[in-house]
Amino acid sequence: MPPLRIALAQVNPTVGDIEGNLALARSWIARSAQAGADLVVLPEMVLTGYPIEDLVYRRAVLEDNLAALHALAGETGETAVVVGYLDRDHDGLRNAAAFLHDGAVSARYYKHHLPNYGVFDEARYFARGTDFTVVPFRGHRIALTICEDLWQVGGPFAAARAGGADLVVCINGSPYERSKDDARLALVRRRAEEAGAVVAYCNMVGGQDELVFDGDSMVVAADGTLLARAPQFAEHLLMHDLGGGPSEIAEPLGDCAEVWGALVTGTRDYARKNSFRSVVLGLSGGIDSALTATIAADALGPDAVHTVAMPSVHSSSHSLSDAADLAARQGLHHTVVAIVPAVAAYHDMTAGSGGLTGLAAENLQARVRGTLLMALSNEHGHLVLTTGNKSELATGFSTLYGDTAGGWAVIKDVPKTLVWALARWRNAEATSGAAPPIPERSITKAPSAELAPGQLDEDRLPPYDVLDAILAAYVEDDRDRDDIVAAGFDAATVDRVIRLVDLAEHKRRQNPPGPKLSAKSFGRDRRLPITNRFRHS
Amino acid sequence: MPPLRIALAQVNPTVGDIEGNLALARSWIARSAQAGADLVVLPEMVLTGYPIEDLVYRRAVLEDNLAALHALAGETGETAVVVGYLDRDHDGLRNAAAFLHDGAVSARYYKHHLPNYGVFDEARYFARGTDFTVVPFRGHRIALTICEDLWQVGGPFAAARAGGADLVVCINGSPYERSKDDARLALVRRRAEEAGAVVAYCNMVGGQDELVFDGDSMVVAADGTLLARAPQFAEHLLMHDLGGGPSEIAEPLGDCAEVWGALVTGTRDYARKNSFRSVVLGLSGGIDSALTATIAADALGPDAVHTVAMPSVHSSSHSLSDAADLAARQGLHHTVVAIVPAVAAYHDMTAGSGGLTGLAAENLQARVRGTLLMALSNEHGHLVLTTGNKSELATGFSTLYGDTAGGWAVIKDVPKTLVWALARWRNAEATSGAAPPIPERSITKAPSAELAPGQLDEDRLPPYDVLDAILAAYVEDDRDRDDIVAAGFDAATVDRVIRLVDLAEHKRRQNPPGPKLSAKSFGRDRRLPITNRFRHS
Known about the structure:
homodimer
């Protein structure tokens, strides 16, 4: 095999920032060339960012990205570049890859397999490619493929074998899902074997709204041997010499570390790419807000994190002290604002029309807190973080415009049982000598919304280990009520949980976005009607 | 042509209510049989409701709907029935039509053309049909088609001609768009000519989340002659004797009447199908809330409408009197709650951290009102209606968790200029002798949010006629900045409006649903990233 030095540029583009993405591509191409690369690979649609959704319909987006492509092409010399971009031909818009060399675009490839499930709507946007190209380069025959193509048996990878390719480049915008990296390596191996060729898999990193791209770029030999692998959640230049034996192979992260990486990356990029320098959130002394603050501090630095304890008449003393303890451990900006005067004002204002009782009085407290955080956001320019977990979002155990008021829902895809596991993991990760960032009592105390005297979550919901197991079956695996009951759960509990999930759809529709971790997050992954009278039992 | 009495049952199913939809089908089939029908036609996916989105993945939904289909089939005798339902075969899920006769399913058809643009995601759900059936019945040859099939040249309607069909039945879930009824008749005519056959077009009516189905069922002869047409926005049995000359032909509604029908139908069904008996909204004395209240009263009756005037220190005297006047004219339940005490409480609570100024102080007032309405909703079970129009939603001229807090956004797809037109139209429609429902001053006064002294909308936004024209070009027609400027608009104004629209995406994502009227409403029609650094100039 003739020598060929490949550089996979695992970079973090920004949707719509075509000028910035062009500069990013140029800088990584230059770095690669300095490192002696013969071939530089950049991710799927890196010039526009990904996914750009209905921005594809803006002619100016298409034109600016084509201008960027031709600028890059014009700058290439001996080092070839494979880059993802948006194209259009007589059949429509195309999710495309170009092979740039010697000052020109020497080959193009249009994605064959367009994902149209889960979060993906590519059949809405793109015409399906049917042509297949093998590019001769430095004694190699190089095939181009894009992302979903990798998931198809008998598709472009079979065509690569037929075309005599010895290297298949696959450029990706493949979002993170828990444990997807395990599936990904196995998949790349199968396709390498199908193609009878080396596969160079280049993925992007970074957050784009709800999606987090984890990188995990890799090179795999035709016999399935892993030759190189990049770390997750970091921009990285992965170099590999074809025919030169294994190079750098990063270890994949463990489950909690990987989830943490996704939460931190998603939060950092949502703030940064939307021009926020600081965040504000309410600290209740409980574990959800404690974990959210810790993720924010890891993402943006403690100086960017503003926390507010907002006690009511129902707040316990440890609520205030645990919140202050967390802020002190991490060096966050912490203040205390009692909500009692505003709550009293609403009760006075509505006394004439019968007053507020029960749930109305409970929700009022949450809404006073939400209004206060939004006022601080408007006054100081902070992004408001919400602190609700996936178990709450699923069951509607939250107050619209109260604890759900904010711009970014950090742990919206983290079930409560995983909230606790992450807190313990993060405390254990604390560098030796440093205090663990999260107070132990916030982890061990019984969860309570503290909106009424003596209230505990488990008065209204099943125990969280049971709840999360039912939710995983119903929401993530789309299993039917009868199946879940047959799996050994109490039928009345299953019916109650399903009913809560179905009735909370209107709330979820108004929740802020947050990072997707699971195979099915609440967001574009799961599209259910609000008006829905289907009853399962 | 042998005689054949057709009954098109333009009915209003409910998503997920399979038992209720079966009962609905039975009752209209019985009515049709009593009227001597030989063939009864029911709309697309009427047994499940439409669109059911990710509910298609619930096995129990599929099974219950198949059980309903077989129950219906078993009950058929001499009168044949065409009905839409959800099917599945080895290739996947199917958007299907069945021909029921003599106790059995005698033919099936799977939709060929699956819409996957705008609000539609059918490529996500369904496998595309390829087979085509012509059913011999009472001396006729009847072809089956479904909705989008009608929009394709050379598709199933060409196959109908090749198959010797003399009647093509087309069942629909075709949502309302302004002036779509004009396009629809022209389209049915073209397909009737292409098929060389009579086309019997049956659409549903009613609201399903953001979509409103307007009916407009019709029968068109092979030469394009309109033979029968049902009224819009009402359940209706449209009877036609094939070979018997024209029957009932309803006049299509004028533009304002049609929009009004969509707003009233969408609001009535969202409330009813989600089990709300009453609504509450804030009345500012301005035109947006006045129009919203009037639509709600037309939809649900005045006794179901609760209005609240919530004056602040910036409210003008005519705000209160115009609000009271509107409520009195229409017999709504009206109360006045001054928000001053709660606003003062927040200012006191935040005084220690620098207080609230400027935009923070403005938004605070809107959020105090939103919290108050939600408290009344929680206490009394009312659905909260928001009153923002499309021009506001487009430009982000609203306060999240303030005036956007609520469950149903009645006029979210009505631009401000159309708000005024609808108010004038509705006042002119008032029955003779009755006072017009909307006070003239609410229509004529200069719009103001009244969140700061002497504030007017036009201090911050271009005049509404200019703004709405730019928004129509940018949002509904997806025209580029340079095109819009070339059309004669001031470049700086265009840039400002586009920037406002782009920056408000995060707000729109958290807005409540509301009825779609335009070709591109803010909702599933328009899917843009929040994180989006594309700049147009």
